[in-house]
Write a structure and sequence with these properties.
By secondary structure, the protein is mainly β. The chain is built from 1 helix and 24 strands. The strands form 4 sheets. Strands 2, 3, 5, 6, 8, 13, 14, 15 and 17 form a 9-stranded antiparallel sheet that branches. An 8-stranded mixed sheet has the order 1-12-11-10-9-16-7-4, with no helix packed on it.
C-alpha cells in the first residue's frame, strides 16, 4: 500500500445471516517477537505482513520508529496478539497490512456488498499521558480514504469512528467521530472489547458497534459510495495537537480479526444460525468450576468467548472439537454470556457462575 498522509482527522460531535468469511487472524501461528525486519513497507515479514513505521517528516520530535513497534505477544486473552507501540512525539504513524485483499473481495458472493470487520482490542488502563491512538481501518485502493475504521485513544480509552465523509460545512475527508457527549464512549480498562465496523459499497453507509453503543450500532453516511475496499490496516497515530503536544508513546494489543462480506447487517451477530437447545447444550448451569459443551449437529467449535454484563470479554478459549469442557473457576460469581463460534455459525448462551 502506498502510505499517503490522510487529511487532518477532525473530532466532531456525536451522532441475519452469518456473512461470508473473507479473512481472519488470531496471530497464534506466528512467533513471539517482531513481525518484520523492515519498516518501510517494502518487504513482508511474519504471516506475509508488511510494516510501515515512521517518525514523520522533519521537523519532528518523534524518534522511536523501529521494527519493535509491531510485535506478536502473549496477550492475556488465552492466546497471542498483535502489540503496536505508538510514536513518542508530534508526528509519525504505524501501519501493518497484508496484500491480496482485492482478490478476496472480488471473489465474494454476488450481492454481498457490505464489508464487515470485527476485532478485539485491549486499550490498557487509560493512565498513559500519551495522545497516541490505535485501531483498524478499511482503506480504498489508493490508500487515501478510510471507508470505515476506528481509533482508541490511549490516555482516555475513548472510542472514535473514522469514516470518509462530508460533515456539514466541511470538505470531504476521513473524519474522526466522537460517539457520545463528553467524555465519549470509553472502553473498559485492561480487558479486551470486541469492536465491529462495516461499510456498504452500494449506499456508502458506515456502521460501528461495540460496548456502550446501542445494539443497532451508530451510522455515518460516507462519501465513498461505489468504492471497493482494498486493504485492512492495523494503525496507530501520534494524536498530537498544538494545545496538548504528544511527548510519549503508548501500546495497545489487538486480536481475533474477522472480515466478512454480507448482504445485510450481521456485525457482532450472536444468533446467526439455529443452534437451539435441542441441538446444542452447555452444562451444568449454574456452574462452579467447569462447563461442558456438546451438540448433535457435528458442528466443530472453534472458539468460546465469555462476556460479563458490561460486554467485556473476560475469557477466550480456542478449541477444535464438537464436545468438551472449559474452566470457569477463575471467574467471579455472577452472570455471563457465552459466545460459541462453530463451523455452522455462532450462538450465544447465558450462564451463571457460582
Amino acid at each position: 500500500m502506498k502510505k499517503l498522509l490522510l487529511l487532518p482527522i477532525i473530532i466532531l460531535g456525536s451522532f441475519s445471516s452469518f456473512g461470508q468469511v473473507l479473512d481472519q487472524e488470531d496471530f497464534d501461528a506466528l512467533i513471539l517477537g517482531n513481525i518484520a525486519t523492515d519498516i518501510t513497507g517494502a518487504a513482508a515479514g511474519q504471516g506475509d505482513y508488511f510494516v510501515f513505521a515512521s517518525n514523520g517528516a522533519a521537523p519532528t520530535t518523534t524518534s522511536n520508529s523501529a521494527v519493535s513497534n509491531v510485535q506478536i505477544v502473549a496477550d492475556g486473552n488465552d492466546s497471542q496478539g498483535l502489540q503496536i507501540t505508538g510514536v513518542n512525539g508530534d508526528k509519525g504513524s504505524r501501519f501493518m497490512w497484508k496484500d491480496g485483499f482485492v482478490d478476496l473481495w472480488s471473489g465474494r458472493t454476488a450481492g454481498n456488498n457490505i464489508i464487515e470487520l470485527e476485532v478485539d482490542i485491549n486499550p490498557g488502563d487509560g493512565t498513559s499521558t500519551s495522545r497516541n491512538t490505535f485501531g483498524v481501518s478499511i482503506f480504498n485502493a489508493a490508500g487515501d480514504r478510510v471507508l470505515a475504521g476506528f481509533n482508541v485513544r490511549a490516555a482516555t480509552r475513548e472510542l472514535f469512528f473514522v469514516v470518509y465523509s462530508t460533515p456539514t460545512g466541511n470538505p470531504v475527508g476521513s473524519y474522526n467521530y466522537s460517539l457520545a457527549a463528553a467524555p465519549g464512549i470509553q472502553l473498559p480498562a485492561d480487558v479486551f472489547s470486541r469492536i465491529g465496523i462495516s461499510y456498504n459499497k452500494t449506499t456508502g453507509v458506515a456502521r460501528i458497534k461495540g460496548p456502550g453503543i446501542p445494539a443497532a450500532g451508530l451510522t455515518v453516511n460516507g462519501s465513498a459510495t461505489g468504492t471497493d475496499p482494498a486493504e485492512i490496516d492495523y494503525v496507530s497515530f501520534s494524536g498530537n495537537v498544538v494545545a496538548t503536544p504528544n511527548t510519549s508513546s503508548a501500546t495497545m494489543v489487538i486480536d481475533n480479526l474477522l472480515v466478512k462480506a454480507s448482504s445485510t447487517d450481521t456485525l457482532l451477530n450472536v444468533a446467526s444460525i439455529d443452534l437451539s437447545e435441542n441441538n446444542f447444550s452447555i452444562y451444568p448451569n449454574p456452574a462452579k468450576n467447569v462447563i461442558n459443551f456438546s451438540n448433535n449437529v457435528n458442528a466443530i467449535v472453534d472458539a468460546i468467548e465469555l462476556f460479563d454484563i458490561n460486554g467485556r470479554i473476560v475469557k477466550s478459549v480456542k478449541l477444535n472439537a464438537t464436545q468438551g469442557q472449559f474452566s470457569v473457576s477463575d471467574l467471579a460469581t455472577g452472570m455471563y454470556m457465552v459466545k460459541i463460534s462453530t463451523t455452522a455459525g455462532t450462538v450465544t448462551k447465558k450462564i451463571v457462575k457460582h
